[in-house]
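Re: How this chain folds, sequence and tokenised backbone to follow
How to read it: Take the token row as a discrete description of the fold.
Start of record: The labelled sequence and token lines come straight after this line.
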Amino acid sequence: MESFLPATGFLYWVGVGTVAYLALHISCFLFTAVRVWGLGNESGVGPRLGEWAVVTGSTDGIGKSYAEKLAKCGMKIVLISRSQDKLNQVSSEINSCA
């Protein structure tokens, strides 16, 4: 009776499957990395997602940058922050830029 697997054995095919699996996942990661970090991901931001955006932590750092970018893309922004004074300041800055 002939075996389905050639003389190389079962472990050979386990190795081939493992290498194929890893190659697929590494290539997907590299494709995503080039698309997001190399080409930019601005297609995921904009009015086609809806006309409103909620930004938390919007008075400093990344939250403030997101709020400014979304406002420049034409979206209406809801700013959320712990400090009302900072919130008023950032709100007036965004209104003057947009």
User: Anything to note?
Assistant: The beta strands are 52-56, 76-80. Residues 9-40 form one domain. The chain has a mean pLDDT of 83. Residues 10-38 form the longest helix (29 residues).
